[in-house]
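For the sake of transparency, this paper describes our internal protein records without simplification. An entry from our holdings is shown next, in its original layout:
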Amino acid sequence: MELNKGQPNYGLDFPLSQSHVMAQLVQPFLPTYTPVRTASLQIKKSSWKNIRKFIRYLDKQQIAKCKDRDGNEVVMMDIDFKYRQVEAFVPYRLPKKEAPASANGKSAVPTAGEGSVGQKLKLVSLLRPKEKLAPIFHASKADPRGLYTPAELKHILLAYVEAENLIDAKNKRLVRLNPHLADGLLGSSAADNAALSSGTIPRDALAERMVAASSPFHVILRNDADIADTKPKAGAPPKIQITLETRSGNKTVSKVHGFEPYHIAPQPLADELRKTCAGSTSIDKLQGSSPKNPVMEVMVQGPQKDAIIKALEKRGVHKNWVEVVDKTKKKK
């Protein structure tokens, strides 16, 4: 109010839609700087349950005047700025963005995602060989439980076949199979059965089986981080998912989740999307995610796939790391 003190109605242009009230007068002032705090500061967890009931409560208290529209929406027509509770209101002491309060009352280190604009990210895919490949690694004097890039695995395989003199004399592209290669890398497919019958297999095909017989790991490096100082996570690299879906008949909303592994916090992302898309945004816990480590989901009104991708790219995310699911398209 102090910023717009000299303007009529303190800069507010009535009537105000309920989405405008939430996006411009509520969400920007919530200290949702961490996923846990974001999950707790949701209007659905308040006694009002939704913004419509909250605005109607203000009308009942004679702080504001509201009017129903379209049956399931309410608009704010006016605010009584001379109301005693408004004039006597004292702002709450809220945690600062730079140093949000932790559970023990001490200042916590800001999350990496809050400074994510302009960051540089590097996605490294790694592989851990399965136990059946151990003889190949022992013969190559390599760690059978180590983590390797696909290129490093192929180099170890090449070193092994050369050390065991398994390269076919007539065709350098072929590798002669021995028991370790056959047991560790070949299965029961038609191609593998043909290779077993002939006793040889193309070197590139054998390298592909070496990669396929390993378990995937990944690490996402931020700025100047060193892979040696980071603990790789099991599984394939995660995708950030953007979902477009229809609500309330014909209204489209865009949702994005899965950005936390890329050092992106939900509130700054939601703030930017609210401005660039000129529409309301909300942050909620993804349905089914863990209460202890919640996955947050940002929702913005309208078909905003391109705006979301652009915001993610500003934060170092490559478009190949993003998956788009469009649920608005009618099935044929």
Notes: The first strand starts at residue 16 and ends at 17. Confidence is low (pLDDT under 50) at residues 99-113. The chain has eleven helices and 13 strands.
